[in-house]
Amino acid sequence: MPKMRFMTIERHIIEGEKKHPGATGELSRLLSDLVLAFKVISLEVNKAGLVDILGFAGSENVHGEQVKKLDVYAHEMMFKAMDHGGHLCIMASEEEEDIIHIPSNYEIGKYVLLFDPLDGSSNIDANVSIGTIFSIYKRVSEDGHPGTQEDCLQQGLNQVVAGYVVYGSSTILVYTTGDGVHGFTLDPSIGEFILSHEDIRIPKKGKIYSINEGNYKYWHPGLKKYIKHLQEEDAESQRPYSSRYTGSMVADVHRTLLYGGIFMYPADSRSPKGKLRLMYECNPMAMIMEAAGGRASDGTKRIVEIEPTNLHERTPIFIGSEYDVKQVEEFMANEESLSWIDKL
After folding, report:
1. Tell me, what CATH number does 34's domain have?
2. Can you give the three-state secondary structure of 66-108, one letter per residue?
3. What average pLDDT does this structure show over 82-106?
4. Fewest CB within a 10 Å sphere: which of 72, 118, 327, 342?
C-alpha cells in the first residue's frame, strides 16, 4: 500500500499556490476561510439528532421547496465565514433568490463565491450522506466596487476552484484548481482535514449507474434504451451494470468519482430543463470530474460551456466516466428527440 504524506489541506493549498509565480496568497486565504465553515457545518451535522435542528424551518426557498433548519444554518455559516475576509466581491447561494452583497463595512475583493450550502437536504432526517458544493470565479466587473450579477453568471469554464464536502460516516472535502483532484478527510481528534485521496483519477469506464428510475416513463426514448442496455447481460462489455442511487447528488457523484460509472439527472416531460442547478451544483461538479479525467454533459454538450442566463438556471446532467457519458450521448443522439416530450 502506498505511503500517504501527512498533509493538511491548508498546507496543500499553500504549496499549490507556490507553483504559480505571481500568486498573492489571496486565494489560499479564501480557501482557508471556507475550510473553517465546512468544519463548523460538519460538527452541526454530526450532532443534528441531538439538538433541536432537524425538521422544517417553516419556510420555503426560492424554488418553492421546504427549507429545513440545517439548510438555514449551513447557509448562514457560509455567509458569516466568508463576508469579512476581503477576498470576495459577491456571493450567490442556492438558498437565496438574489446575489448576496458583501457588507459595506468590509473590504471588497476580486473573487466570486457560489455555493449550495446543503445538497441532499431531503435526506437529513434519514441520516443519509449530504454535502456542500462550491465554486470560485474571478470577478469580471471593475475592481474595487461591489460585485454584480454579471460576476456570478459566468461559464463554468471560468471557474478557478471547485469542490464539495461530503458529510457522511466521515467528512471528506474534495477540490480542484484545475490541476488534479484531491480529497481530504476530517480528523475530528485534531480538527484538521488530512490528505487521504491524492490525485484522484476516475476510471475511463465504470460498472455502476446512478439515476432515479422512478421517473422512467417521462424520459427521452434514447435514455430509456440506454438504461435497458446497461441492464442487459454481456460479459464482453461487463454488463449488466449495478444501480446505486441515494438522492444526494454530492454522495452519488463522490462514489462515481472514486469507482467510475455514471450519474444522471436528465430532463423529462415534467421538467424539460432538468432539476439540478447549473451554477451551484452542475458547474462545480463538472470541473471536478473533468479535472479527474471524466466527462460532464447536458446530453449534447459540455456542462461548463453552457452560457448561464439566470442564477437559478437548471440543466440536465450526465457525469462520470468518459466512456459511459459518451455512450449515453450517442444513445440519445440516435433517437428522434425534437418532439419526444409531446408524445408522452
Report:
1. 3.30.540.10
2. EEEHHHHHHHHHHHHHHCCCCCEEEEEECCCCCCEECCCCCCC
3. 95
4. 342
Around 187, how many Cα atoms within 13 Å sit in the side-chain half-sphere?
A: 11
The three-state (H, E, C) secondary structure of 111-163, written as one string: EEEEEEEEECHHHHHHCCCEEEEEEEEECCCCCCCCCCHHHHCCCHHHEEEEE
Helix, strand, coil content of the chain in percent (nearest 5): 35, 25, 40
Split into its structural domains, the chain has a count of: 2
Asked if 124 and 161 touch (Cβ cutoff 8 Å), the reply is: no
The residue whose grid cell reads 467528512 is: 171
Query: Residues 192, 224: one domain?
Result: no
Residue 211 CA to residue 130 CA, distance in Å, equals 17
Average pLDDT score over the chain: 90
203 domain-assigned: no
Residue 332 lies in a domain: yes
Domain range for residue 292? 208-343
Residue 163's closest CA among 38, 293, 318, 335?
Answer: 38
CB 246 within 8 A of CB 252: yes
Rounded CA separation 1/210 (Å): 30
Residues 183, 233: one domain? no
Q: Which three cell numbers stand for residue 221?
A: 426514448
- The CATH number assigned to the domain holding 312 equals 3.40.190.80
Q: Decide if 327 is inside a domain.
A: yes
Residue 326 has pLDDT above 70, yes or no: yes
50 shares a domain with 189 = yes
pTM above 0.70, yes or no: yes
3-state secondary structure of 175: strand
Does some domain include residue 202? no
- In this predicted model, what pLDDT tens digit does every residue of 154-180 receive, in sequence order? 999 999 999 999 998 899 999 999 989
- The pLDDT value given to residue 92: 98
**Are 193 and 272 part of one and the same domain?**
no
> Do residue 49 and residue 177 come from a single domain?
yes
CA angle 80/85/88 to nearest 5° reads 90
Q: Are 193 and 265 in a shared domain?
A: no
